[in-house]
Specification:
Layout lengths: L7 E5 L2 E5 L5 H16 L8 H9 L4 E6 L5 E11 L4 E10 L3 H16 L4 E4 L5 H7 L19
Parallel strand pairs: 5-6
Antiparallel strand pairs: 1-2, 2-3, 3-4, 4-5
Length: 155
Amino acid sequence: MMPNDTGVTKLVSGIEVTRVPLESISAAWPCVEELVDSALNEMMGEFSSFDVLQLLRKEVAQLWLCIDADKRILGIGITELIRTPQRSVCNFWLAAGQNLEVWQEAVLVVEEWAAFNGCDLLKAQGRRGWSRYARRHGFTSTHETYYKSLTRNQQ
């Protein structure tokens, strides 16, 4: 699914929440790559920051920023819009930043944007620390994700 807008910017409790439009991805990337890398460190090597950049450039994924009044980036998020046979899903699959509270209201902006784009479900993955936040904000946990490396030692 391709998003229906060129970018979203809303002010929420003094924090600017912005979906970075395609034409601004390359300029924004040096400012967010370190945060993307920090979030990817928790994902067992599924993606590199280069992979994420390519998904953003192909408009498969969307980059969200939380910016304070001094124009400092407090947090980043990565979403993707997925059409399944039964649902239209906004998958919020990567987030990083200085504090969880930044995303508490920012997620409302993502929800509004997802609904505007025809989604009827918001899905999110996160570390266990996110579970309290998720429950307080209407998310339901249905399962956990387990990883097991299948790499064999070369002898």
